[in-house]
Specification:
Blueprint: H1 2-5, E1 11-15, E2 24-27, E3 42-47, E4 50-60, E5 75-76, H2 85-97, H3 102-108, H4 112-115, E6 125-130, H5 132-140, H6 146-157, E7 162-163, H7 164-170, H8 175-183, E8 187-192, E9 196-197, H9 211-222, E10 228-234, H10 240-253, E11 257-261, H11 268-278, E12 282-286, H12 292-303, E13 309-312, E14 324-330, H13 347-358, E15 361-366, H14 371-378, E16 382-387, E17 399-403, E18 409-410, E19 413-414, H15 415-426, E20 430-434, E21 443-445, E22 463-465, E23 470-472, E24 479-481, E25 495-497, H16 501-511, E26 517-520, H17 530-539, E27 545-548, E28 561-566, H18 580-592, E29 603-608, H19 614-638, E30 645-653, H20 658-671, E31 679-684, E32 690-691, E33 694-703, H21 706-720, E34 730-735
Parallel strand pairs: 10-15, 10-16, 11-13, 11-14, 12-13, 14-15, 17-29, 20-27, 20-28, 26-27, 28-29
Antiparallel strand pairs: 1-2, 1-4, 3-4, 3-5, 6-7, 6-8, 9-12, 18-19, 21-25, 22-23, 23-24, 30-33, 30-34, 31-33, 32-33
Helix pairs in contact: 2-13, 5-6, 9-10, 18-19, 20-21
C-alpha cells in the first residue's frame, strides 16, 4: 500500500526560478542512486512542455503525490552542492524573512551562467607568447599575411605574454589569425588564472595608524573567529579604508578570506586599486557590469578558495567563500544595498545575518550611518568604532547656506557661487558642483497655455537632453523627438525650464571659458570604462570644474577639490517619504566631505530658497550627528523604523482599478490575522501612480516588532495568493522598504 502511495521511493524536492511559493517533487533520473544527490545541487527537470534548471532543497523518502503522477529529473549538473550547509541555511532564512519564493532566492544567489545550466567548473584563461620561430617571423615579416604580421607585431612589442582579455582590447578580431600562428609554430599558448592579482609593493604598506584607527583595528582583530557587528562611524577623510586594509591583513594572515561590499559599480576601480596596491594576492571582483563569464569565474574562484579577497556590489553577498573571515560593508547607509525589484533583500542586513551564521565579525562603515545602525549601537547589538579626525589634519568644512531669494541668479547659479568658483580656480584648485538631475532641462513648457511635456507611460515629465535633441523619461526610458509646437494649443514658443547637469555645464562654460569642465553622470559614463577614464583625468589635475550627480558623492577622494557646491538642495526637502530627511542629510554631508581633504582648506556652499528650514539649519550648525539625535526622537514618537517594523505590499496592473481592488481584499485578510499589534495603512496610490504603462498602489503594514510582522505575513500571504483578483495584477511584498514612493 505504501509503495502505491509513493511513500518509499526516494524523491528530489526541487525549487525553480518561478514566482510560486512551493517545492516540486521529482523522481531520480534513470540509473542514478539517492546518495548521488544532496541539497544545493542543480538538476534538469521537465516543467510543462519545457525543461528547467532546478535546485535540490531536500532528498526525501517519499512524496504525497502518487508515483504515477510524478515526472523524472533528466540530468544532474553538479557532483557537489554549490553551497555549504550554512550557505543553504542563509538562503532559507532569506526566503522566510523576505517572504519570497525559495526558487527565486536560490536563483538570485547564482551567476547567470549557472542559472542556465553551465557546469560549475573554473576555466583558466589563455595567454599567448612568441616562439623562437615566431620571433624570426616577426622580424622578417610574413609575406602576403598582413593580419598575421599585425598580430605578431603586437606580441613582439609586449614584454610579457598577452592574455585573451588584453588581445580583445587591442586587436579585433584576432582569434582566427591566432589559430593560424599557433598552427605554424609561431605562437605558444599557456593557461593563466584570469583574475586580478595585487602588486603589494613596499610603496603602499600600512600607514602609521592614528590612535582612533589603531583602536578600531585592535577591537576588530581581537574579535576574529567569533561574531560581532561593528559600526565604523568615521568623518569623511578619516581613513576608514585604512582600517579595512589593516583588518583584512590580519584576516589573511590567519589563512581566511575577506568579502568587501561597496554600494556602486563606480567605486569598484578605486577600491580594487587600493587593495591591489596593498596585497600581492589573487582577488576577485563581482558586479552586474561584468560579462557572464567573468562573473562565473570570480564566483567559482571564491568558492574554491583560489582568491583571498572578493570585492563586489550588492549581489556579491551571496558568493560562497571557502574560508570567510570578515565581511566589510562600506558606505553601509547607502540605499543601493537594497534590491528594489524582484527579490527585495538588503545586502547590508543579509551580511550581518551571514556573519552571525559563520561566526565572524562584520564591519559596517560610514560617515553618515543609517539611523537603524545607530539604533543598533544604542541597543547594544553593534559595537561602535569612532574616527573623529581626518588623517591629513584638515578640518571637515562647515556648510554655508546661500539664500537664492537674495541676489542675482543665472541659470540656477547665484552670483555668490560664481564669485567663489572664480576665487578657487584662480588659486589652481578644483571645484565640484553637485546637481542630482541629469539632462538639460526637466520641463518643456508652453507659456501660452501652461502645457508641459509628460511621459505617456508614467506620471512624470520628460527631460530634455541636449546634443541628441531628445526628450527622455528617466523612469521608463521612453524617448521621443522634441516637438516644435505645443500639443494643446499649437503654440510655437516652447520654453526649457529648470536645471540639469547638461545646462549647468553650459552655464559654467559661458562664465568660465578657460576652465576645463568635466561632467560626470549616467549619460556621460554609459560607455564601459568611461568613468574610470574621467576619474583619472580628475586625479591628474586635468579638470578644473567637476559637474555631476550622486555618482560623485560616494566615497571618491578628490585631493585637489577645495570648493563643493550643492546647486539645488530644495528638491528633496518636501519628499513624502519619512526617510527623506535622513537621505538629504546624508547626501549633504557626503558631498561636503569631498572638499578640503588635503592641504587646501575646504569650503561648502548650499544653495536654497528656504535657508530657514529646520533640517538645513540643523545640518549646517550641528552636522549629521546633530540630525541623528533629533531624527531618532521624532521616529520614536511617530512609531517609525527603527522603532517599528514595516512591510509594503505593492501591486500594479495595466487596468487602472485592479491594483486598488486587489489590495482592498488583501487588507481584509491581513486585518483578520490574530495579531492586534498590526497597523495597516492604505491602500493608496504612490506619488507616481502610473509608471511604465502600469497603474500602481500600495499597502503599508506596521508592527512594533519584526517577529510580530513576520508571523502575520506568514499567515496572510498564502490566503492572499488564492485571491481571484491576484490573477489580474503583479504584486510583491517588500520587507523593510527603503522607498515608499
Amino acid at each position: 500500500m505504501k509503495e502505491a502511495l509513493g511513500q518509499s521511493r526516494p524523491i528530489l524536492k526541487v525549487v525553480l526560478d518561478i514566482p510560486l511559493r512551493r517545492v516540486f517533487d521529482y523522481l531520480l533520473p534513470d540509473a542514478m542512486r539517492p546518495e548521488q544527490f544532496a541539497p544545493g545541487q542543480r538538476v534538469k527537470v521537465p516543467f510543462g512542455r519545457a525543461s528547467k534548471v532546478g535546485i535540490i532543497v531536500a532528498v526525501a523518502d517519499g512524496s504525497v503525490v502518487q508515483p504515477t503522477k510524478l515526472r523524472r529529473a533528466t540530468a544532474l549538473f553538479d557532483d557537489q552542492p554549490l553551497f555549504s550547509k550554512r550557505g543553504l541555511s542563509l538562503l532559507h532564512w532569506a526566503s522566510d524573512y523576505y517572504h519570497h519564493p525559495l526558487g527565486e532566492v536560490f536563483t538570485a544567489a547564482l551567476p547567470p551562467l549557472l542559472r542556465r545550466g553551465r557546469r560549475a567548473e573554473l576555466e583558466l584563461g589563455k595567454c599567448y607568447r612568441l616562439t623562437v620561430s615566431g620571433e624570426h617571423a616577426a622580424t622578417a615579416g610574413i609575406a602576403r599575411a598582413p593580419r598575421q604580421n599585425s598580430l605578431l607585431a603586437i606580441l613582439r612589442a609586449s614584454q610579457d605574454p598577452l592574455s585573451d582579455r588584453e588581445l580583445d582590447e587591442r586587436h579585433q578580431p584576432w582569434r582566427t589569425t591566432m589559430r593560424r600562428l599557433i598552427a605554424n609554430g609561431y605562437v605558444e599558448v599557456d593557461e593563466y588564472f584570469p583574475l586580478g592579482i595585487g602588486t603589494g609593493s613596499s610603496a603602499d604598506q600600512p600607514l602609521p595608524a592614528v590612535s582612533e584607527q589603531a583602536d578600531a583595528v585592535r577591537m576588530v582583530t581581537e574579535s576574529l573567529g567569533g561574531f560581532q557587528a561593528f559600526l565604523l562611524d568615521g568623518v569623511t577623510g578619516s581613513g576608514k579604508t585604512e582600517v579595512y586594509l589593516q583588518v583584512v591583513a590580519a584576516v589573511l594572515a590567519l589563512g581566511c578570506q575577506a568579502l568587501v561590499l561597496i554600494p556602486e559599480i563606480s567605486l569598484t576601480d578605486q577600491t580594487v586599486q587600493r587593495f591591489q596596491r596593498r596585497f600581492a594576492l589573487p582577488m576577485a571582483v563581482l558586479h552586474s557590469g561584468m560579462t557572464d563569464k567573468e562573473r562565473l569565474t570570480a564566483w567559482l574562484a571564491a568558492r574554491d578558495g583560489r582568491v583571498s579577497i572578493v570585492i563586489g556590489t550588492r549581489s556579491a553577498i551571496w558568493t560562497p567563500l571557502k574560508k570567510l573571515g570578515i565581511i566589510i560593508i562600506d558606505e553601509e547607509h547607502d540605499g543601493s544595498y537594497k534590491q528594489q525589484d524582484g527579490f527585495r533583500y538588503s545586502a547590508r542586513d543579509v551580511a550581518v545575518m551571514r556573519a552571525q551564521r559563520d561566526s565572524i565579525p562584520v564591519i559596517l562603515g560610514s560617515a553618515t550611518p543609517s539611523l537603524e545602525s545607530v539604533y543598533n549601537v544604542r541597543a547594544g547589538r553593534y559595537r561602535p568604532l569612532k574616527l573623529t579626525k581626518r588623517i591629513h589634519a584638515s578640518q571637515v568644512p562647515d556648510l554655508e547656506l546661500i539664500d537664492l531669494k537674495n541676489g542675482d541668479v543665472e541659470s540656477g547659479i547665484s552670483r555668490q557661487l560664481l564669485v567663489a568658483i572664480d576665487e578657487h580656480l584662480n588659486r589652481g584648485e578644483q571645484v565640484l558642483l553637485f546637481l542630482n538631475r541629469r539632462g538639460y532641462a526637466p520641463t518643456l513648457l508652453c507659456p501660452d497655455c501652461g502645457w508641459t511635456m509628460a511621459c505617456e507611460r508614467c506620471d512624470a515629465r520628460m527631460i530634455y537632453h541636449q546634443g541628441k535633441e531628445r526628450l527622455r523619461c528617466h523612469h521608463c526610458g521612453a524617448d521621443r523627438r522634441v516637438p516644435t509646437r505645443c500639443q494643446d494649443c499649437a503654440g510655437e514658443h516652447l520654453l526649457m525650464l529648470g536645471q540639469g547637469t547638461q545646462r549647468l555645464e553650459a552655464t559654467l562654460k559661458a562664465n568660465f571659458p578657460a576652465a576645463r569642465i568635466l561632467r560626470i553622470d549616467r549619460d556621460s559614463t554609459r560607455r564601459r570604462g568611461a568613468l574610470a577614464t574621467m576619474l583619472k583625468t580628475v586625479h591628474a589635475g586635468e579638470a578644473d570644474i567637476l559637474v555631476g550627480t550622486q555618482m560623485l558623492t560616494k566615497g571618491h577622494d578628490f585631493p585637489a577639490v577645495s570648493l563643493v557646491a550643492v546647486v539645488d538642495a530644495d528638491s528633496r526637502l518636501y519628499d513624502a517619504d519619512f526617510r527623506a530627511g535622513e537621505r538629504l542629510s546624508q547626501l549633504l554631508t557626503q558631498v561636503a566631505g569631498r572638499a578640503g581633504r588635503r592641504d587646501a582648506p575646504g569650503r561648502v556652499l548650499i544653495q536654497t530658497y528656504v535657508p530657514q528650514h529646520p533640517l538645513l539649519q540643523t545640518i549646517s550648525e550641528h552636522g549629521y550627528e546633530g540630525f541623528v539625535g533629533t531624527a531618532l526622537a521624532e521616529r520614536e514618537a511617530a512609531g517609525w523604523p527603527p522603532f517599528a517594523a514595516l512591510a509594503l505590499l505593492r501591486a500594479e496592473a495595466t487596468e487602472v482599478g485592479a491594483p486598488m481592488d486587489f489590495l482592498q481584499r488583501a487588507r481584509l485578510i491581513i486585518a483578520a490575522t490574530e495579531s492586534k499589534a498590526l497597523e495597516v495603512l492604505g491602500p493608496v496610490n504612490p506619488p507616481m501612480a502610473k509608471r511604465a504603462g502600469r497603474y500602481r498602489a500600495q499597502l503599508l503594514i506596521s508592527a512594533p516588532r519584526r517577529s510580530t510582522l513576520g508571523v502575520a505575513l506568514r499567515t496572510a500571504l498564502p490566503r492572499i495568493e488564492l485571491l481571484p483578483a491576484q490573477r489580474n495584477v503583479r504584486w510583491s511584498i517588500d520587507m523593510d522598504p527603503q522607498d515608499l514612493n
